[in-house]
Each structure stands twice: as C-alpha cells, then as structure tokens.
C-alpha cells in the first residue's frame, strides 16, 4: 500500500493531505474555497484514487496561499507514494472534452518537476479564484512531486476549461502511478528516477 499522509502548517495555512493511489473511492475535500473543492473532487474521482484535502488558510487575504500550499503538500504526498518508482507505468496522458472545451495532460513521473501549460482563460477569475492561480497550483504540485507535465487546453467557458484540466491531470496521474502486474523494475534506463 502506498497511502501517504502529509501535513504542513505555516502562519498562512494549515494543510492535511491523505493520498492513496491504490484505493479508489474515499474522497474528502474541504479547502474553504468551494470551486477548488469541486476541482479536487473531479481530479480524484476521475483519477481513480483516494484523496483527503483539509485546508485552513488566510482566505481573508485571498485564496493564493491556500491553493499554493495544497499543491505543495499534495505534491510531497505523491512523491512519497511513488517511492523509488518500482513497477509504475511512469508515463501517461489523457485528453478530456468538457462541452466546448478540451484539455490534454501528458505526465512523466520522472523525479524532475517541470510544468508547461498552454492555453488561455477568457476572464480573470473562475469560481472566485484568479485564473493564474490554477497554473501556480499545478506548478507547486509538479515541482514537489517530481512530475514533468505538459498541459494544453482550449475552449470558451473558463469553468469548463478548468474542469477539463483537473480531470485530464487526475486521469493521467492515476494511470502513470499504476503498477504493472509482475513488474518490479524501476522504469528508467538509469536505474533510478
């Protein structure tokens, strides 16, 4: 079992994350930001893993610190769940339509954190979250998890774009972390991620 619990407490936030890539179905999300709850729920449900995210942050300032720190803690939990990567598929991608919008996420669980995000939002915020914060969330997640991710999205409705992105990333993450039956090798020509 690769279930991991991580916490982080600062003067700005208090975050608890439980991440289990092997057991789907247990999802508990409470961030104080309703739209982020909706996105993380879709991320975990479609990714096929269990996820608890309980966050309290300085929302009286804005949601930036809370969402950034969720990315950091979730990324740290994913990295610990990966361990040395023995048997995982490592690479995965997903293309998800959401009405007129579409998002593609291509992931490499490489140990090297990197994010390329291509696409544009129509407005300045979605669900009360400044649209640039979504990229920052995925950046924080990727850097701390050691994931190289390329995310491409298009469409008209910003809610649909966000939802397609979170679903695509979750599905690709679930696939990349899945273990190939009978395979115990580290998926790298170097012998290490």
* Total strand segments: 10
Instruction: Output the helix-strand order.
Output: EEEHEHEEEEEHEH
In order across it, which strands form the biggest sheet? 1-2-4-3
Termini separation (Å)? 20 Å
**Helicity, as a percent range:** 25-40%
Oligomer state equals single chain
Task: Estimate what percentage of residues fall within beta strands.
Answer: 25-35%
Nearest-angstrom radius of gyration? Answer: 16 Å
Q: Major sheet, described briefly?
A: 4 strands, mixed
Shape: globular
Number of distinct helices? 4
Q: Helix/strand/pairing class, anyone?
A: alpha+beta
Mean of residue pLDDT values: 95
Supply database-style keywords.
single chain; 4-stranded mixed β-sheet; 193 residues; alpha+beta; globular; 35% helix
Structure commentary:
- It is globular and about 45 Å long.
- With 193 residues, the protein is of the alpha+beta class.
- The longest helix has 20 residues, at 158-177.
- Helix 2 (64-82) runs parallel beside helix 3.
- 35% of the residues lie in helices and 31% in strands.
- The mean pLDDT is 95.
- A 4-stranded mixed sheet has the order 1-2-4-3, with helices on one face.
Offer a quick outline of the entry.
By secondary structure, the chain is α+β, with helices and mostly antiparallel strands.
Q: How would the blueprint of this fold be written?
A:
Elements: E1 4-9, E2 13-20, E3 27-30, H1 34-47, E4 50-57, H2 64-82, E5 91-98, E6 101-109, E7 114-118, E8 125-126, E9 129-130, H3 131-145, E10 147-154, H4 158-177
Parallel strand pairs: 3-4, 7-10
Antiparallel strand pairs: 1-2, 2-4, 5-6, 6-10, 8-9
Helix pairs in contact: 1-4, 2-3
């Amino acid at each position: 079992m690769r279930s991991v619990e991580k916490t982080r407490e600062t003067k700005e936030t208090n975050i608890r994350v439980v991440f289990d890539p092997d057991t789907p179905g247990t999802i508990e999300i409470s961030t104080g930001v309703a739209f982020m709850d909706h996105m993380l729920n879709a991320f975990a449900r479609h990714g096929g893993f269990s996820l608890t995210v309980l966050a309290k942050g300085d929302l009286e300032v804005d949601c930036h610190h809370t969402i950034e720190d969720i990315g950091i803690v979730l990324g740290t939990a994913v990295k610990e769940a990966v361990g040395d990567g023995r048997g995982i598929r490592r690479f995965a991608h997903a293309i998800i339509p959401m009405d007129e919008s579409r998002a593609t996420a291509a992931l490499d669980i490489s140990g090297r954190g990197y994010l390329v995000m291509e696409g544009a939002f129509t407005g300045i915020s979605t669900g009360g979250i400044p649209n640039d914060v979504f990229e920052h969330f995925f950046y924080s997640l990727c850097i701390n998890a050691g994931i190289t991710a390329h995310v491409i999205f298009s469409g008209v409705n910003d809610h649909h774009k966000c939802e397609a992105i979170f679903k695509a990333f979750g599905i690709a993450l679930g696939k990349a972390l899945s273990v190939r039956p009978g395979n115990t090798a580290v998926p790298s020509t170097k012998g290490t991620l």
